Amino acid sequence: MERAEHWETLRSEALRSSTPSPGGLRLVYDRSPRVDDELVQLVEAERVCCGDAGITWTLTLGETAVLDVGVPAELVGSPAARIIGEVLGG
């Protein structure tokens, strides 16, 4: 399964909310051991894959799993930023 398919599965099964944030996107997921594991693995894969683009991935595990994705100012509105928004937040 491709990473985009994993993100889509998480979105359909566990995404509680997706909201724009200053310079990025905030995604809130319902937690379960499988969701936590999947998010940790996907965030690490995105950091390895796209780290050179300056995109930041901050995952906080509390009552919910909160993923803040930061997009550098020069990428806001770019095709890459739109793809990230579509894949992660729908």
Q: Could you write a compact summary of the structure shown?
A:
The protein has helices spanning 3-14, 33-50, 79-89; strands spanning 15-21, 24-29, 56-61, 65-70.
**Over all CA atoms, what is the radius of gyration?**
12 Å
Biggest sheet character: 4 strands, antiparallel
Q: Find the count of extended strands (DSSP E, 2+ residues).
A: 4
Number of domains: 1
CATH architecture: 2-Layer Sandwich
CATH class: Alpha Beta
Q: Span between N and C termini?
A: 18 Å
Strand content: 25-35%
Strand order of the largest sheet: 1-2-4-3
Q: Please tell me the overall pLDDT.
A: 85
**Helix content range:** 40-55%
The shape is globular
H/E element order: HEEHEEH
Query: Structural class of the secondary structure composition?
Result: alpha+beta
